[in-house]
Amino acid sequence: MWKQIALLACAATFWGCSTPPATNSTTVSTASPAAGKVETAYALGAKKKGDKGHCAVCVVKEGKPGEETVAETLDYKGKTYVFCNESEKAEFISEPAKYAGP
Questions:
Q1: CA distances in angstroms from 12 to 5, 9, 44, listed in the order given
Q2: pLDDT digit string (tens) for 59-88?
Q3: pLDDT tens digits for 1-58?
Q4: What sign does the dihedral 48-83-50-54 (CA atoms) show?
Q5: Quick one: 26 exposed, middle or buried, by C-beta within 10 A (0-12, 13-18, 19+)?
Q6: pTM flag (> 0.85)
Q7: Three-state secondary structure readout of 8-30
Q8: What's the rounded Cα separation, in Å, for the pair 30 and 38?
Q9: Using CA atoms, how far apart are residues 61 and 14, in angstroms rounded to an integer?
Q10: In 19-66, which ranges are E strands?
């Protein structure tokens, strides 16, 4: 009986020692406060054309928080930004501080 209790106690101790769940640390929030907290800057190279992501320009201009299909990407200050079309990417390039944040 004591062996079973000891085994049960050991099992209960190690049950909680499993690896913690992975966290997604590949994104940084740079959306304007008015747009809410939406991730628009991704780890360098984390997003490619065809992936889903938040267009940095759409989030700031339209407050559009939904993920869209990535049509264009741009690496800026060590982060990757995604865009739903070429004109949004061009707008970001013309005013990066407005869309990338501080």
A1: 10, 5, 41
A2: 999 887 789 999 999 999 999 999 999 999
A3: 666 665 555 544 444 444 444 544 444 444 444 445 788 999 999 999 999 999 999 9
A4: positive
A5: middle
A6: no
A7: HHHHHHHHCCCCCCCCCCCEEEC
A8: 7
A9: 50
A10: 27-29, 39-43, 52-53
